Amino acid sequence: MKLLALDTTSGACSVALYDDGRITEQFVEAERDHTRRLLPMVDEVLAQGKLELAQVDALAVSRGPGSFTGLRIAISCVQGLAFAADKPVVPVSSLAALAAGARRKHPEWQQAPVVSALDARMGQIYWGVYSPKAPNCSLLPEAVQDPEQAVHVLRESDLPRELYGAGPGWHYPALEQAPVKVRDTEALIHARDIAELGALLWQNGVSMRAEELEPLYLRDEITWQKRQKIRSQ
């Protein structure tokens, strides 16, 4: 199968082409300029893969959680491309992609669950736990919580004793009490991992129409406040 994947969830912008297991990726760490960079990166990745957009089977994108602005940029771009090419979309958890990338970066983590954590601001984190046997599904419900709450949930859970931590959300001092063996605070989300996870979902029949795609914010009250502010302007 051929799948085009995009991500602008956090402080990086990346595009990847999955072509029957072979992956071509463009990745850049950029806090801003995602909107300007994304489409040229799509063109370059497709050119490197010697494919046209019409030749891909589907598009994959990080559905969140993550930066509100970042999620909207990637999702709106994928929707536009999917509409133009009449292609389905495969939504992938940003936390699952973070765990998959950390496991790829650290071969010694291959057999253990990875606890992904992204900074949700306001003193909270987005987090979830992903095993190599079911990389798209969190072993605990994905959540946005105070670091202390997350530590409590991890300690009270019946997860395996050997856990690893990945992602920039692990910078909070309270998370030093979490039952993880090692943590990588520099792990980032890559479109190549979204592509691989998206390919697994696609093979299991998971896809949707572009108009059905919506970001997963987790922090519903903040989303509601933003919508209310926009409506009042």
UniProtKB/TrEMBL annotation:
Record keywords: Cytoplasm, tRNA processing
InterPro entries: ATPase_NBD, Gcp-like_dom, T6A_TsaB
Subcellular location: Cytoplasm
A biological process from GO: tRNA threonylcarbamoyladenosine modification
Annotated Gcp-like domain residues: 29-145
CDD domains: ASKHA_NBD_TsaB
One cellular component (GO) term of this entry: cytosol
SUPFAM superfamilies: Actin-like ATPase domain
Family: Belongs to the KAE1 / TsaD family. TsaB subfamily.
Name of this protein: tRNA threonylcarbamoyladenosine biosynthesis protein TsaB
The species this protein was found in: Microbulbifer aggregans
